[in-house]
Amino acid sequence: RAKALLNEARAKGDPQMLAEVAQKYLHTEAGAEATNLLGTYYLDRGGYVMAALCYERLLNHPSAGKLPALTLFKAALAFRHAGEQVNADHAWDLLIKNHPEGLRLGDQLVSLDRLHQELVQASLQGSAGLSRSDWPMWGGNAARSAQGYGGAPYLDDQVWPAKQTVHLSQTRTWIEETQDNQRTRGQPVIPAFCPIAATIPTDKGPLPLVIYRTYEKVCAVDARNGEVYWDTLPLLWGLDNLLADPNKQMILNQWRQFYIQASCQNVVYENSVLGTMSTDNSRVYVIDDLALPPHPNYMQQFQWGNQPTFGALKDGVNHNTLEAFELDSGKLAWEVGGKEEDKNDLSGSFFLGPPLPLGGKLYVLNEKKSELRLLCLDPLKKGAVTWTQTLANVKDSLLQDVGRRVQAAQLAYGEGILVCPTNAGAILGVDLLTHSLVWAHSYRQPAPTNPAIKMGGMMVVNPQVLSQDWKASTPIIAEGKVVFTAPDGTLVHCLNLRDGQPLWTANRTDDLYVGGVYNGKVILVGRNSCRALNLTDGKQVWRQDALGTPSGQGVASKNVYYLPLKEGRDKEPEVCALNIDTGAIIAHSKSRKKLNGPTEIPGNLLFFEGDVISQTTTTLTAYPQLDVIRAQIDEHLRKNPQDPVGLTNRGEIKLDEGDWNGAVEDLRTALA
How crowded is residue 524: how many other Cβ atoms within 10 Å of its Cβ? Predict the structure, then answer.
């Protein structure tokens, strides 16, 4: 049977049929051959991630020790291009062990030295123009588990003047009123607007760019000096642009009252569908959607048959668009989605978050007419659909389920599995090679009177409207496991990546978001605390209480987690550095009151090109790293040991780091 299907697939030249043979019959000779052919197919076409996935399965095959030299070299080449160094080394080790003479191509024998040169060249090509500190998406990589390259920020200085993300006074009023309301109710202010970073080649050398979204458009600045490199044209449904139109502002003001009554007006800066972006180092991908959708309580008055009239906002209510901007210029390359009247597969649909760039393709969740779909798009063909996989049918559309519309469903990828959250009671795993659903996990008990999604025999219930339980999050893949929280759930979940089987759950205490999974620890940030769970069993490893109120998403580097706080233990804004393994506080980077302005509160953090980037609800700021400032101060004091300014600055740094004796000595000398 397997051999017959393989022959049919070869005769038709059908990669999808090859993938099915490879998946169903991998442990047969025909299945291994299909996997090898499929790997070659993708490698020849530059699909390095897919090729690497095929060769990884071959290396785990019982006959891996008998693989020919050409297959092992192709495997090492695919792994190198895909950036999978461990697998590349494994394939190379097998090659030199089993084929020390090299690779024979016809009458020519290619030596191991020559083959190794080819692999090194492949690595150089794959990293051309890239920086190790690039941060192309939320979470840093496809598994959403990257650590950055950096250290504690020095919050008393800026690398370049802060960039404003609000341009319209009415928008600023909305944001300030919302923040005041949040703080009055004891709620933290944590924006969902997160910058990304990429390096592009130019005639003058690599150019590091920080890309961020405002309430009007998308901007890119030179990370070295903060100069605007490009900005896009205004996005159609951005909040600044909507409020600038009197007709649209009138409707939004009506809708906003429903949000205020429900105490969830913070959606204006916690909308992660708008606030998160991604890049494949060629284009930047963003979702343009209505910044403030009609609240469900507003829609409820029309449930008995009356049709709502949305006026000038009708188009924005009924669909959104995925837009691709050129990374080197900010020009619109293409957009997909649009009005229902456009009569194509993506018209009248909703993209549920920015796409995941992977292996030259884009993967994104999309909903149309209550059908939830996984799409594979080709960015080189103006976002054309390569394939579609239906995942679920949803009872309530996004018009009634605003929570799902503003809480991005971010994909994650690892070991050949695309993890697809629905934010509606279920999370699913899709095999990237065959595009088939391999597992589905329901994380809530079904409500018999109000099911929202039906998948086979599984039903999951409608989520709570704009749940306050969890802040914006994404599934995280680490060590063969998937860790996730859901905006419509109350637990931390851990599943087996391969089959979706639940491994453990943990109760949410005062947790707000998962800070990341590092070194076998699941970092959870709470309203006034931070704790770590063991990735293996979910048991608590450590907990730090009374830390202060978080003000953004933190970032990890070198086994340290940097947590931004609105108020630390001494009521000043700071970034608190925590040892990931033990929870010990390593340092407090304080933000002191400025003579010419208010104290700066750190926001969502990002390490890039030696600086710490912070985006709050209204600004983007670049802070120098503490080690850089310390070195500058030490050099200054070497030339002038009694300089009171240098001594004071160094004394304050030592004070933040807990070096009390050193701080007292420096500050006393400064006052002498």
Answer: 24
**pLDDT reported for residue 445:** 52
SS3 598: coil
The structure tokens listed for 645 are 């300014």
Q: How far apart are CA 534 and CA 391, in angstroms?
A: 31
For 574, residues 6+ apart whose C-beta sits below 8 A from its C-beta are 155, 548, 564, 565, 568, 588, 589, 590, 591, 602, 656
Distance, CA of 431 to chain centre: 20
pLDDT in tens, 416-448: 899 999 988 899 999 998 898 999 999 875 444
Instruction: Give the DSSP per-residue string, 551-564.
Output: -S--EEETTEEEEE
Residue identified by tokens 């990735």 is 535
Structure confidence at residue 594 (pLDDT):
63
Question: CA 114, 117, 123: angle at the middle one, nearest 5?
Answer: 150
Mean pLDDT of 355-367: 95
Q: Is the pTM of this model over 0.85?
A: yes
In whole angstroms, what is the distance from residue 651 CA to residue 639 CA? 17
Q: Which helix (H) or strand (E) holds 205?
A: strand 205-213
What are the backbone angles phi and psi of residue 38, rounded to the nearest 5°? -65, -40
The answer to whether 614 and 564 have CB atoms below 8 angstroms apart is yes
The CA distance from 447 to 454, in Å, is: 12
In 280-433 the beta strands, taken as DSSP E runs, fall at 283-288, 321-326, 332-337, 350-351, 356-358, 361-368, 371-378, 384-394, 412-414, 417-421, 426-431
- The distance of Cα 663 from the centroid of its chain, to the nearest Å, equals 39
Give me the sign of the Cα torsion angle 432, 434, 437, 439. Answer: negative
pLDDT tens digits for range 265-275: 999 999 999 99
Cα 49 from Cα 57, distance rounded (Å): 13
Using a pLDDT cut of 90, give the percent of the chain over it: 60
Q: Kindly state the tokens that stand for 207.
A: 């150019």
Say how far apart CA 127 and CA 121 lie, in whole Å.
Answer: 10
pLDDT number for residue 659: 81
119's tokens: 């692999």
Q: How far apart are CA 76 and CA 397, in angstroms?
A: 46
Is residue 131 over pLDDT 70?
A: no
Residues 76 and 92: beta-carbon distance below 8 Å: yes
Distant-in-sequence, close-in-space partners of 578: CB < 8 Å, separation ≥ 6: 530, 544, 560, 561, 562, 563, 584, 585, 586
H or E element: which one contains 51?
helix 48-59
Tens of pLDDT along 388-409?
A: 999 998 877 888 888 899 999 9
Cross-strand bridge partners of residue 469: none
Asked if 102 contacts 109 with a C-beta cutoff of 8 angstroms, the reply is yes
Instruction: List helix spans (H) across 244-281.
Output: 246-261, 267-270, 272-275
